[in-house]
Specification:
Layout (H helix, E strand, L loop, with lengths): L1 E8 L13 H10 L4 E9 L9 H9 L1 E10 L9 E2 L9 E9 L4 E10 L5 E6 L3 E6 L3 E10 L2 E9 L4 H15 L6 E6 L4 H7 L3 E2 L16 E6 L6 E8 L6 E8 L1
């Protein structure tokens, strides 16, 4: 019995080389992973830059999955105005955030749960093709959890995308750890943690299921994208790989659990 898990920083479907958003190409690339559970970061929801589509719904349909979108900001991230933290997800509100996809046949026993984490004070320099370089403030972060029914029993899966400020990402990782105490084991955390393995191990000494550089995608030098397990039976065989998905600036991590 095999369960495949993946974490994908979708970069809103934007191609790193051309700068264009291509949601159909993203959907196809994620579907090719053939994963049962996928944590997706940097997802657009009804935003003009991605054609006003619901990327979570399209990604879920491509996998034959149930999709849960959690907005972190309302509006287009990085825009000069009209951006505000999302204290909750509003289906009709153009937003940006993360998603957790669970493929049919693996029902979510307890539904989806969220923990919202406040934004840090850091600012990230980005290059806007229209206006040039500028500083973008950090945004609220969120972790989404589901308890998934598998042939070997329930498995808790969490997906998140942490702050680009390392010290604040470490603080958020501790919040994820505390949130996870309420969930049954075994448990797997998937996501772009914006932290290298050494710091992750010090904050959260769970078992790494995949190791290797994931960023930047064309020639990765550091691992920012992780899959970590707690309470996983030692008899479960683990196979993992890192691969490029679409034109994202991150590579995806893919883990097969053989029960």
């Amino acid at each position: 019995m095999r369960l495949r898990l993946a974490s994908v920083n979708a970069a809103s479907g934007r191609d790193l080389r051309s700068g264009r958003v291509d949601t159909p190409a993203l959907v196809e690339a994620v579907a090719r992973l053939d994963a049962d559970v996928v944590a997706v970061q940097e997802v657009d929801h009804l935003l003009p830059r991605s054609g006003g589509v619901d990327q979570t719904a399209l990604l879920a349909a491509g996998l034959g999955a149930h999709g849960w979108f959690a907005a972190t900001v309302h509006g287009t991230p990085g825009a000069a105005q009209g951006i505000r933290d999302a204290h909750r997800t509003v289906p009709e509100e153009p937003s940006y955030g993360i998603a957790l996809l669970v493929r049919g046949g693996h029902d979510t026993a307890l539904g989806f749960r969220e923990l919202r984490m406040p934004a840090g004070r850091g600012r990230l320099p980005v290059l806007d093709p229209a206006s040039g370089p500028r500083l973008v403030p950090d945004e609220q972060r969120v972790v989404v959890a589901a308890v998934v029914d598998t042939p070997a029993g329930p498995l808790s899966v969490l997906g998140t995308h942490l702050s680009f400020t390392p010290w604040h990402a470490g603080r958020q990782l501790r919040m994820v750890r505390d949130f996870a105490r309420t969930l049954p084991r075994p448990l797997v955390l998937l996501g772009d943690l914006n932290l290298p393995p050494g710091i992750v191990r010090r904050v959260l000494p769970w078992r790494p299921l995949v190791t290797g550089p994931t960023f930047p995608a064309p020639a990765p030098k550091v691992q920012l994208d992780h899959a970590l397990a707690d309470g996983l039976d030692a008899q479960v065989r683990v196979e993992s790989r890192i691969e490029q998905v679409g034109g994202s600036d991150h590579r995806a991590v893919v883990v097969d659990l053989h029960f």
